[in-house]
Design goal:
Strand 1, helix 1 and strand 2 form a beta-alpha-beta unit. The chain is α+β, with helices and mostly antiparallel strands and about 70 residues long. It is built from one helix and two strands; from the N terminus they run E-H-E. Strands 1-2 form a two-stranded parallel sheet. It has one domain.
Length: about 70
C-alpha cells in the first residue's frame, strides 16, 4: 500500500495494538488514503493478517512497517 517517491501527497501511519482491529475498523480508511496518493503504513504487533493479501497492499512486513 505504500507509495514512495513522486506523486505522494503525504505519509499516514496507523498504530494499532491489535491487527484485527485495523482490518475490521480502519482498512477502508487506509485503502482510501492509498488511493488518494498517500503512502500508508501500519504498525501493529505480529504478522500481517491474511485479509491484507499481498504484503505491499498496506505497507507491512514482519514488523508491519516499511
Amino acid at each position: 500500500m505504500t507509495r514512495e517517491g513522486k506523486g505522494v501527497r503525504g505519509k499516514l501511519l496507523f498504530v494499532a495494538n491489535d491487527a484485527g482491529f485495523f482490518v475490521s475498523h480502519r482498512l477502508a480508511v487506509g485503502l482510501g488514503a492509498r488511493d488518494a496518493e498517500f503512502a500508508v503504513y501500519v504498525a501493529a504487533p505480529g504478522e500481517p493478517p491474511a485479509e491484507l493479501g499481498v504484503p505491499d497492499r498496506i505497507g507491512c512486513g514482519n514488523s508491519w512497517m516499511r
